[in-house]
Amino acid sequence: MSLLVKICGLRTAADVAAAVDAGADAIGFVFAESKRRVTPAEASAAAADAPAKVTRVAVMLHPSNDEWQAVLEGFAPDVLQTDVEDFASLDVPASVTRWPVIREGNPALDDELLPATFLYEGAKSGQGETVDWTRAADVAARGRMILAGGISAANVVEAVATAKPYGVDVSSAVESAPGRKDPAMIQDFVKAARAAEQTL
Questions:
Q1: Strand, helix or coil at 140?
Q2: For residue 184, what are the domain limits?
Q3: How many CB atoms lie within 10 A of CB 2?
Q4: SS3 of 196, please?
Q5: Parallel, antiparallel or unpaired: strands 26-30 and 4-7
Q6: Under 8 Å between Cβ of 6 and 186
Q7: Residue 94 maps to which CATH number?
Q8: Which of the chain's ends, N or C, has fewer CB atoms near its CB within 10 Å?
């Protein structure tokens, strides 16, 4: 079984090239308060040469509809990723896929119906905060769960073997300094993630 691999927090064309060359399936651009924050124009320029098969994800956190519309117009992402409760106030066209973020401990996890595809992570994004992978396995059984938070080349095989996710999402663990992506670390992560597919 194949594993969706997303490299998040990209800022430049070089970052995108490193992720694409490594074999990432999805590339994430952060439009929330962060060391990795980009403008829609910066994200659009960075992703300009990414092949169509690579999914371009707008990563937001509690945006206003106006903020989201600016990203939609200036970047035109394939996917909007933001906390599950945010979608109620956002006008998302059918052409954009929704990846709601459900955080560990969120009451939404008790709902019978989880979104078809969703991210599962800790209370704060981009902090390298690891969730309970055993509990995540229960959540993964109920939909296409992309596991995020504290995953690295060193632990992705164990994380995938334990949680059995649909995909994995990495940001800080492929950086040489906060907000600075490292091509070699991206290569190492994707290689380890592909090895982890054998556990699915």
A1: helix
A2: 4-199
A3: 10
A4: helix
A5: parallel
A6: no
A7: 3.20.20.70
A8: N
The gap from C-alpha 37 to its chain's centroid, in whole angstroms, comes to: 14
Read off the DSSP letter of residue 42.
H
Cα–Cα distance list, 67 to 7, 40, 50 (Å): 23, 10, 24
Pair 34, 54: CB distance under 8 Å? no
40-67 tens-digit pLDDT = 999 999 999 999 999 999 999 999 999 9
Q: How confident is the model at residue 88 (pLDDT cuts 50, 70, 90)?
A: very high
Backbone φ and ψ for 15, nearest 5 degrees, come out as -60, -45
Alpha-carbon dihedral of residues 187, 49, 126, 40, nearest 10 degrees? 170
Q: Are 18 and 181 in contact (CB under 8 A)?
A: yes
Element (H, E) at 56: strand 55-59
DSSP 109: G
Cα distance between residue 153 and residue 188, in whole Å: 6
Position 126 confidence tier, pLDDT thresholds 50, 70, 90: low
Domain count, the chain: 1
